[in-house]
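Risk register update: the risk that structure generation would not scale has been downgraded. Supporting records follow, first protein first.
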Amino acid sequence: MKETELYSVEAEQGILGAILIKPSIVPNVSGLIRPDDFYRQAHKVTFEIMQEMALQGESVDLVNLAERLRRAGMLEKVGGVAYVMYLGNVEATAAGVEGYCQTVKDYSKRRQIVEWARQAMGAACDMGKSVGEVENSMQDAFMKGAQLSEHKGLYNARALIFALQEDINRRARGEHVGVKTGIRGIDSHIGRMEPGNLVIIAGRPSHGKSALACTIAINAARAGKKILWFTLEMDATETARRIVSFLSGVDNAKFKSPELRAMTEEECGRYIEGYETLDRLGVHVSDATNQTPIDLWRTAQGVKAAGGLDLVIVDYIGLMSAGSQKKENRVQEVSYITRMLKNMAQALQVPVLALSQLNRASDKESRMPRLSDLRDSGSIEQDANIVMLIQRGSHFAEDGTVVYDNTATLDIAKVRDGATGTVKLDFYPACSKFLDHVEKKGR
């Protein structure tokens, strides 16, 4: 197919015709496509005029549309009254407008891809640049391009109004935007992890970061959300074992006994129910190691395109690689990684929940961790919408080993649109589960 054929006149006209049939769909359509997604200038201009009319409360009909185009000096440029009358006769339906928008958006993306490919060829043929420089520039172009195509990125005042109006309408219809953690104490502070959010759970080793991520993942999946979990520290088998242990309530350690002989008959029944439940959940797991932000992004895009995506979990930032974007030191690399994770969240329009280590300062000073303890980079705090710091108390056993308490304090230290504060949680290490804290009777 030639570049000049990368558009659909019928779909573009279908959108405009559908608006004339049902003008109230303008906010919804404005949330799906931008004027620049139209290939034909006449269609782009007409859509912009329709948006303006809707904002001003004017009836979007044939007569008013022709008059508004005339006043803007565009009527003859788009094809005159005959063009407007033709739009009124287009065989389109308001019910089918989302399909028309998807077609127009897809063609718009294809034209953008052609442009990126043209730029890539030019950069690759520039012998004045090293291969590394070419790779770096193309990775940045890929991420910026994906962000622009998936999420508009640039809004004028009109687009802002439509975006806000559509968001209010969705919430009024009861459509839940974002993902809840499923833990009441946390959700009362942060509400939901919203699309485009970068959420950080940070803690020292063995304090339960991965278990809390597992709890949130399974709670979200049970609520019907589609989850992509990058387990850079555990392999897929260990992750599956944790999930089924969580779902069944059977001690994780018993899964490792030969032929599950450590389990009672009742536990075996619960184990079977657990993996049958897992089979029904919308969970994808990637256990590939040494992943770069680009690797994560490509995988997430594939999962979203194949069946939808609501939440990405990254366990954990410290095991990620900057790849060809390798910097002078680890602080700069982590800054690059967190910035790219934030870009990924915005481009895919899903929350990204990433785990991070804390440095040893809180241990040495015997205090609760704080934001300044985030390891390797202050950019984690800067890029994140929400930062939660987990801490479990501990004591020394008789043999000198450290024993961690089965309660945890979660300091919700940063929330851009919510309330900071602390939440107490109960931890069940045998099945990697966190629950809202319940005070024991008699205490």
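Supporting record for the second protein:
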Amino acid sequence: MDVETASESESSSYDAAQRRSRQIEADLAGDAGRYRMLTGDRPTGRLHIGHYFGSLANRVRLQELGVDSWIVIADYQVITDRDGVGPIRERVLSLLVDYLAVGLDPARSTIFTHSAVPALNQLMLPFLSLVTDSELRRNPTVKSELAASQRPMSGLMLTYPVHQAADILFCKANVVPVGKDQLPHLEQTRVVARRFDETYGRGSLKAPVFPQPDALLSEAPNILGTDGTKMSKSRGNTIEIGMTADATAKIIKRAVTDSDRNITYDPQGRPEVANLLLLAALCTGRTPQSWADEIGDGGAGRLKAVVTEAVNSTFAPIRERRAELEADPGHLLRVLAEGNARANAVAEATLDEVREAMGMAYDLA
């Protein structure tokens, strides 16, 4: 396939995913109960406001609509591109605190850790039999890691797309919130689900063991870091969800702008100023343009004051809730234990179906 043909195919696939995503969104208002959603995060550090506006707020929205929500704290996936896990327990609990503080309800959203669900991880074995080495190496995440890494690729990194497929399919999620760049991962999951049915069959003739999940495409805003580059924990340019109001104010005060006192919303010509206006808009429900019009020739100082007030007002109740949660570690551990137990029960039932379909259910009891 030449480059032009590949580009056309990718565009066509994205258009189809968009159409399906719009259909699902329309359906959620009246029939959210038919959907099970899987998403999650790697515990590599503290979550920031980019995570909140990019994914956490949407998870809460889906939960409130009635979608059966499953959130994986992907602790095993930390070591796909790292030599160790770091302060993993602290980071896992920090993620959990953020989840609960923003409004995820463990009674309606199953929150669990990767490493605590053996049956989920056991699905990797049959799933690996369904993909080829070349398919894995074509995955964008694997390709970028191979190109950027200064060391040999680990087997876990190479099989990262299959591990993600196991995350999604063990609980039979039929919808996954993703951005455009994550569509290849979801397509790999759909391929695994389809090939399992074609290769191994079904435990019951009525339906395949695994659904082919659809993408719920995110229109998440692209929030830059305070230095004008991509917001990233590793760059130190983030505003953490759990930061104090004073710490937030100091970070925003240092944010990059420009020398023009007249504040305008121009994402192409003035990306740093536009980014701050966008942040104020997201926190207040207004448009970036309306904030630019109001600030006018107030300059960067006025702009930063507006953003500081907007961010601190928005996150004040979340931070208050965080403090309450951090003061009760026993509650956090109970939430995690209950989520892990729920995930294990579902994973073991799924693994039983897999064994039945593969002819490996020996009825030894």
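The first strand starts at residue 36 and ends at 41. On this basis the risk owner (M.S.) recommends closing the item.
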